[in-house]
# Entry
Amino acid sequence: MANLLEVHYSTGFLGDIYTEGTDGQEVFLAEVARQIRASDVVHFDETSARVGKANHYFHVTCTELLISRHGLDPVQRTGWL
# Structure
């Protein structure tokens, strides 16, 4: 990251910022899920990313205005259908 953005912070510090940034998002994510459930049209999709020798799948649930991305099947995770 230092080479790309000329930011010279330790990976531990950046990890702490990431963790702090995710704390307290439950209310926001619950509202996104509520609005997606209330939408007339919802699109579900999945894509993969190869890390090392393993494929990892990311699932996307979206409407015209909202998107929710996560590593679990959206139907299993949220019961949206």
